[in-house]
């Protein structure tokens, strides 16, 4: 690291506050104001909440409009595949970019691109010229927007939130995700039922709101690869720096592998639950309501983040969240009806927000500033790989094996992952990283 001291940052922030009207940084030794009074973070959060809501509303309607335009379920699957592929392929380059460039500008480009993309779909629908090629290009842009926007947003949040309030800020982000997941799909279906273009117009406007909120928030400078001391000659650089950092750190390595297993098993939960409910002759509207159990569980789990982080070490919490998923797969096959399935899905999500915040905190406080973007992007890519692997594996097993056997396979995989994590002494004994300063950059 270089000689860029936190005292220098304080001075820059105070000058910025006087010149631009932003709130002044706290004087050393004074208590920090509560997070709710952090105007910059709250503006970012409001913008991202609106953007996430619009994205969730449009996400559920893209398959509907593709079916209306082409009549092909395979084409709808191709859209999802292209969007996912773009996000995975661009994850590592995105990490390199946000570490070397102004992450706020990267976020502005990502939000602006997604706003224009959704708007273009609405205009094409209005003109009656929407084609599958247009939709596939939109899928690629949306995937790229997620790849670049995700780590950029995390670093922008990191730049305006003191380290001692980071857990609270990340918990508020988890609340946003769950709330958008709960409200977005029904809103998108309602808007689509009124008029096809409405969910895409809403999505475009929501990303524009997010873009504007990022635009008016001024963030302090952060250490990047271009300002940090040169890396040692024997250190791997470039896009693989994030992957190497995850692998070299025994705590991050074990946490990442356990989280991949959890994501692999969790990705097909909706598919598996849908098949179970269909075989119980459950009406489609009830199936849709049951899936809201995931978002409700996430909202309830967000309230548990603070207590769990205070009472449990990171490794113990991680092992607990993984192991508690094992009975979920056994409980789902019990023939107790749709509301039982909804309750099980809600239970499955209770520990997920705490786990998400756990990994974010370990990265933010344990990884040097000039590599955080690449490490976040690498983790996102690895977690993202678990999703399609789980979905494809579940589809094949459900095609050729019974539901009970499929559940047993996933339960066994989670048990193995939990056992592996529990056997890692470094992970079990790892303490929470300590916030040692009050700097907005720490």
TrEMBL record:
> What SUPFAM superfamilies does the annotation carry?
MFS general substrate transporter (SSF103473)
Q: What is the organism lineage in this UniProt record? A: Bacteria, Bacillati, Actinomycetota, Actinomycetes, Streptosporangiales
Record the organism: Streptosporangium lutulentum
Tell me its family. Answer: Belongs to the major facilitator superfamily. Drug:H(+) antiporter-3 (DHA3) (TC 2.A.1.21) family.
Show the coiled coil region(s): none
Transmembrane as a keyword?
Answer: yes
| Location in or out of the cell | Cell inner membrane
Q: Which UniProt keywords apply?
A: Cell membrane, Membrane, Transmembrane, Transmembrane helix, Transport
What's the name of the protein? Multidrug efflux pump Tap
Q: Which Pfam families match?
A: MFS_1
What region holds the Major facilitator superfamily (MFS) profile domain? 40-429
What are the transmembrane regions?
43-68, 74-94, 115-148, 197-217, 254-277, 283-304, 316-334, 340-363, 375-394, 400-422
Q: How does it sit in the membrane?
A: Multi-pass membrane protein
